[in-house]
Design goal:
Blueprint (H helix, E strand, L loop, with lengths): L4 E3 L6 E3 L1 H23 L5 H23 L9 H32 L3
Helix pairs in contact: 1-2
Amino acid sequence: MAKEHLYDHETGAAYGTYRTYITGFVLSVIITVIAFTLVGCKAFPPIGLYVSVVVLALIQLYVQLVFFLHLSTDSKARWNMISFVFAVIVVLILVIGTLWIMFNLYSMMMIM
């Protein structure tokens, strides 16, 4: 989506241009306003609001990653993407493992 990146030749780090930052900012504001309006006006039943806010949050995450953190699949920025995926996997393992332990402790501490 945002292919206008400047690269550091030594490290392969990507830098954005003013256009990418402005585009990312405008998209972020639009997505935030849409989510706020949906919840404020109670446009859907509660389950529909949950789903729509989660979908908008995932879109917001994508916009933030592409326009501000400059994550892309370009060959020069591949190590940034690999380190990001590794960090996500580690966080998921920690969160899922913590929830698993907490639910097991809860079920074993139940007084019958």
